[in-house]
Design goal:
Helix content is about 30%, strand content about 30%.
């Protein structure tokens, strides 16, 4: 039986069904490009997700900090104490409240660690420089409060105020240390002001330095970030009323 021509045709067909080296290189190149594109898309997606998560956490932190500050000020406790000056000078009876443009000190029923459930604390707010080129930073200290005498040690003496001519307490500087808690960072400015009630609403005024021997009616905290970002929350001005109507040192009938 003759098989020559048929075998030759079969071998030719098998040769045509093979894959050349050039086709293999093209296929590998296309697969590499496709894999690279997928990896780039995944990397971009993960970066976007990470940025969104970071902004979300920053916004939540800012909202939480503003709520904490408002609760700390709203928890203001009116305390009258004796200012204990250095030397042999006699103590002076003062309302314990330090209010300046960059510093604030008072007793509050709200603390960072225990919220409304803990003991009162002496809170010290201070605006300090941040990292180089990072603007300002708002920090707070929480000091133990063990009654009026524990607050009086923060007063170092009395002086005559240049504006009102009345005696005003001189408070010791607020010390910043490892226990200080950063409430806000990278601020273009941060300042406090205090509301003095007049005989009518038209006579109300805000002052950056509180020297009157009574409590302010409200505290205003103004902040702005160094960098403006339309996506992230901006610190807003908070005005917190102090719901205290009793005059310091006055005895009320039961």
């Amino acid at each position: 039986m003759m098989h020559g021509p048929r075998s030759t045709a079969s071998e030719s067909a098998c040769a045509e069904r093979g894959v050349t080296l050039l086709e293999m290189l093209v296929a590998v190149t296309l697969l590499s490009l496709l894999s690279g594109g997928i990896l780039i898309a995944l990397h971009a997606g993960l970066n976007s997700m990470s940025k969104v998560k970071t902004r979300l956490m920053d916004n939540r932190r800012l909202a939480g900090v503003q709520r904490i500050v408002e609760q700390q000020v709203a928890g203001f406790v009116p305390v009258v104490t004796d200012c204990l000056p250095d030397g042999d000078r006699p103590p002076a009876r003062i309302p314990f409240f330090q209010g300046e443009a960059q510093s604030m000190r008072f007793v509050s029923a709200y603390s960072l660690k225990e919220g409304w459930r803990g003991l009162p604390r002496i809170l010290e707010f201070q605006v300090i420089p941040g990292e180089p080129g990072g603007g300002l930073r708002l920090v707070v200290n929480e000091r133990p409060y063990a009654g009026a005498p524990s607050a009086g040690i923060y007063c170092s003496g009395m002086r005559t105020d240049e504006t009102t001519g009345a005696p005003a307490p001189v408070f010791r500087p607020i010390e910043i240390g490892p226990q200080s808690f950063v409430l806000a960072d990278r601020l273009a400015f941060c300042r406090f002001s205090f509301l003095e009630r007049g005989r009518n609403p038209a006579e109300d005024r805000w002052t950056p330095h509180w020297v009157l021997p009574r409590w302010p009616a409200a505290v205003r905290i103004e902040m702005a970030p160094v960098e403006s970002d339309a996506v992230r929350l901006r610190p807003v001005t908070a005005t917190i009323p102090l719901h205290v109507t009793a005059e310091p040192g006055r005895t009320y009938a039961p």
